[in-house]
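2024-03-11 09:14:02 INFO worker-7 job=invfold-0412 stage=load source=structure_tokens
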């Protein structure tokens, strides 16, 4: 039952060429950076990735993209990566665009054994009708497009049929994990991680803190150990901020004689 492995390199050693990876994270939040970096060093290529976004330029999954290791991605947002746009439009990368909520549900369905489901999202658009460019050739001509999906009506409303997603490997990052693979994610870093972990046939989790079995209360577990095959401790280091936004602290106005706050001209 002890699923802890000694290093990120050991954890991804058997990921081969051409496999499909479900990867947790949103932007750079909750991304399994250590596992991705270890996979870069390991050398696997021809990868298909399922993730909300395929890295932010040359960070996170972007390191694999810039190295030419990813040939297909299933994502909901690709606008934050210039290299992805270049590879896509030059015919070197296939892209399947999926609405964000639909992507989450497709992963969850794959993890729970549900083959497909109906959703109103995308009805009346190219998501349902087909025609979204999936692959270009080197001259920039569209050579593959998305196919039309089944539409059915329930209670007077139309729904589109979406199929489940599964992967050969799931890569996730958690704040806390135990030796049995039970995981707890921190606030918004939870994002797609439980879903990617459920969808992977073999799921590898990097954790910041390792605890012993029983230290995590059952009601606090976000992803049960039944979905997790390997755990590697990476510590809190390596986390990155995608867009740092700050605001100036309000300056304290000087006190005038008598203890009253002075008026600063032009200040509101």
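2024-03-11 09:14:09 INFO worker-7 stage=emit residues=268
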């Amino acid at each position: 039952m002890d699923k802890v492995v000694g290093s990120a390199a050991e954890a991804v050693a058997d990921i081969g060429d051409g496999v499909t990876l479900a990867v947790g994270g949103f932007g750079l939040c909750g991304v399994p950076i250590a596992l991705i970096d270890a996979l870069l060093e390991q050398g696997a290529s021809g990868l298909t990735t399922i993730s909300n976004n395929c890295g932010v330029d040359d960070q996170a999954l972007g390191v694999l993209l810039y190295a030419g290791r990813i040939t297909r991605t299933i994502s909901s947002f690709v606008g934050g990566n210039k290299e992805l746009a270049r590879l896509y439009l030059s015919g070197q990368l296939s892209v399947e665009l999926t609405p964000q909520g639909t992507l989450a549900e497709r992963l969850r369905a794959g993890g729970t054994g549900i083959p497909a489901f109906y959703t109103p999202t995308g009805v009346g658009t190219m998501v349902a009708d087909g025609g979204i460019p999936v692959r270009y050739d080197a001259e920039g001509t569209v050579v593959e497009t998305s196919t039309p999906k089944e539409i059915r009506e329930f209670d007077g409303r139309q729904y589109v049929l979406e199929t489940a997603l599964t992967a050969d490997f799931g890569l996730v990052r958690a704040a806390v994990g135990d030796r049995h693979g039970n995981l707890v994610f921190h606030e918004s870093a939870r994002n797609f991680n439980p879903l990617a972990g459920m969808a992977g046939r073999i799921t590898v989790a990097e954790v910041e803190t390792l605890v012993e079995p029983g230290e995590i209360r059952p009601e606090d577990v976000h992803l049960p150990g039944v979905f997790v095959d390997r755990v590697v401790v990476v510590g809190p280091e390596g986390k990155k901020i995608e867009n740092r936004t700050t605001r100036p602290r309000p300056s304290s106005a000087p006190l005038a004689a008598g203890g009253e706050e002075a008026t600063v001209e032009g200040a509101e």
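2024-03-11 09:14:09 INFO worker-7 stage=report msg="Residues 52 and 243 are 17 Å apart (CA to CA)."
2024-03-11 09:14:10 INFO worker-7 job finished
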